[in-house]
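Researcher: Sequence recovery benchmark, item below. Answer with residues only.
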């Protein structure tokens, strides 16, 4: 199971980097999404996968009894999902605004509009 998660994580990272290097902003946004999912999978796989009870201390016990699920990776992944969603929403809004202004999603075509008419070069 750990090997499968490692392979999936590597594929997500490879696909994300490949898509970020493309010329279309839509592909860049998908690349950012893949990198976010890859980071979540990495945190998940390093958090020691265990089929166990939740991380609660039983009544009358002084400490957790093995096996238990580690709550830290779960909290980190939940935080990363929220931050990733905010980043994706911002990127989509930024893409829409730039597409409305420039009429293209090609990054190379956007570079030619760096110098706006009437402005200093």
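Model:
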């Amino acid at each position: 199971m750990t090997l499968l998660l490692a392979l999936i994580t590597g594929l997500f990272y490879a696909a994300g980097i490949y898509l970020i290097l493309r010329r279309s902003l839509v592909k860049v946004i998908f690349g950012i999404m893949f990198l976010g999912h890859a980071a979540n999978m990495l945190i998940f796989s390093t958090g020691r996968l265990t089929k166990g009870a939740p991380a609660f201390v039983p009544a009358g016990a002084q400490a957790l009894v093995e096996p238990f699920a580690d709550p830290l990776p779960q909290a980190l992944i939940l935080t990363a999902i929220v931050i990733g969603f905010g980043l994706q929403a911002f990127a989509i809004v930024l893409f829409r605004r730039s597409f409305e202004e420039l009429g293209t999603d090609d990054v190379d075509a956007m570079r030619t509009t760096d110098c706006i008419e009437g402005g200093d070069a």
